[in-house]
From TrEMBL:
Pfam families: FUSC_2. It is a multi-pass membrane protein. This is FUSC family protein. Residues 376-391 have a biased composition (Acidic residues). GO terms for cellular component: plasma membrane. Residues 355-400 are annotated as: Disordered. Its main location: membrane. Residues 417-542 form the Integral membrane bound transporter domain. It comes from the Bacteria. It comes from Streptomyces argyrophylli. It is found in: Cell membrane.
Amino acid sequence: MWDRLAASDPGLLRLTAGLRTVTAIALTLAVLAALHVPVPQLVAGAIAAMVATFAIREKQRGQQAVTLAFGLPVALASVSLGALLSQRVVAGDLFFVVLIFCAVYGRRFGDRGTALGLIGFQVYFLSLFVGATASVLPELYGVICVAFVCSAAARFALLPQTPAGTLDRLRRAFRARLAQLLATQAELLDAGPDEAEKVLADLRTGTARLHETALLIQGRLEDGTSDPAVARLLQRRIADAEIAAERLGLLLLTARSAQRTDTLTLHLPGAPLPSGGELPVRDEATAALRRDLQALRLLTLRPAGEASGTALAQVRNRLLGYREEENLPPASPAVQDVFRGLGETARAALGLRLALDGPQDESDDTPATARSREELDAEDAAIEVSEESEAEEARPAGLERPTTRAAVQVAVGSALAIVGGELLSAQRWYWAVLTCWIVFLNTASTGEILVKGYRRLLGTVLGVVAGIGLAALVGHHTWTAFALVLLFIFAMFYTAPLSYTLMSFFVTAMLGLLYTLLNTYSLSVLVLRIEETALGAACGVIAAAVVLPVHTDRRTNELLVAVLDRLADVTRGAVDQLSGGAGGDLVEQARELDQALADLRAATQPLTHPITPLRSRRNTVRYVVALLETCAYHGRSLAATAELLPTHPSIAADPRLRGAGRRIVHNIEAIAAHVADPRSATQIETGPSIASMLEPGTLRTPRYGRVTDRVLRHLQRLDEAVSGLARPLGLAGGPARPRK
């Protein structure tokens, strides 16, 4: 059960965020209740504690403490201005718009600027929500100070979270998700025609979840480790395990089909399972394959302290032995490839265990296992941390800067929301402003804002329905209502990364309870909440569409060019290194490619959302993103293979690979130029396959000739995928140029 929890919530980040926020609020309520403060101030303390806890996002505890210390005077100043300007409608509205602009503009100063802006805005909203006046300011000062102290106690004493601890939990999540993926791959062996499509969908999901965890780990390596060499080693081992597991899934799909499976099958949602054959259920090789997949899964999950004993050593040795040609069981070539993939995945799992848990008992090693250890040791010794300073990229200035543009858009949208909200309700107009503010958070295009506004409105409507029932049940039972408020706050934070609609549902249901506590609950209030939410979302969309608009097409094109640029860098570096040159830090380049692709995937959500009316365009976008994921997989694999040089005894460089890869890089750059400027005259090159461009017998290796085939296969698949990208993006092809 713990492994399932670790896999569903990598690093326990959602669980920790929810528990810490709830703990801070509960502690604040306990202290304030002991002081016998009235219910409105209890509500104010709960909101202040929530804001002081979730606003701070820095990873280092020292930075968190500094931001929290700066946040307190910001909160006190904000609540003071909110109370003093409550009776001055025009001045208060103008100040609120200025505050919103400054809060959003502060995002350009990093996590601290974002946190302080969020605290300033939310505490001003708090003053409006509880109806703060100048006469109650001293009491509110005390309440807010108590809330910040309780938030600090929850963060630093009761539920401390260190970067090293978070990284350790993320590594456990990676192991758990890797084991889940292996279990799904085992299911693929026995899946019949009626079950195969569902198992394939689970395989895609498991592969994507493993990749997501790998990205989370890579994003926290710098803060979670004290030694850059250790961070680089972990990054390398995580990447190896991810690539090996993904390749094993492809080999299993190929073994089930009459011909080699296209990598796109694993990345395109809805793509059918390759037809043409099934693995024989009673075949001895298949039975051994099924057994060894389960064994590899158990070895992956087993902690270092329990992964000892003769039986486990024999299982590990058998799996690693499949890397030797003479140890493969008699079977078809496709099934033998799966056994080779098992051996490579077992080697990656061994490298991951050595990197995470340190040296292991080697007394029961076979020669095959000893060779795997020697290869891993040689790779570890070759890892050096690059000290080269990165060139600073040119950044947009003025209104072209994203934070400036967003600040202007939010300010305009909020001004519209204030005017419209005042017409709907002179007391609760601020709900429209809050919605307008929220739909702009973590969005960068008009389409993203539209989808986020739709989800918030849907969650609000469902939350109002729930709030009506809860308010009737709770009545005037104050502490029962506060207990439900804590439960909903935890659910809000736990579901926020998963579903914005669910989060909005829990927020609105919680607000219904808070209105009950403040004795301001009525059906008309909750209906007004829906109206203000719809108004705020509409104002946000209008501001985004009219004021300095960033259309979804422009945003996705910019990110697509960034992905293609990163893909060209990885391909060029990997091919150069495989050709005998110096390719640079390929693991870091592959990570940048993955991050750029993740940004593109998020930005295309408005185009692939179920409510979009352009069905053909949605299918095209999904196809292009899937092709890019296929390209990224082959690029990562080439980079991982290239980094084995010169330490791996079975891989040798060949200068002719540089010529074979030149066409791929040219085509990637041509597509990027066409996306950036459709009037560009660039064309992609077509010609013979990559494998035919090299003479037979290239890259002969002393032990594993299959490594050579793998390099050529990745180049060939990458070439095909890049050529496939040109068609939906409207780029014509031309003949290949003569090569020197």
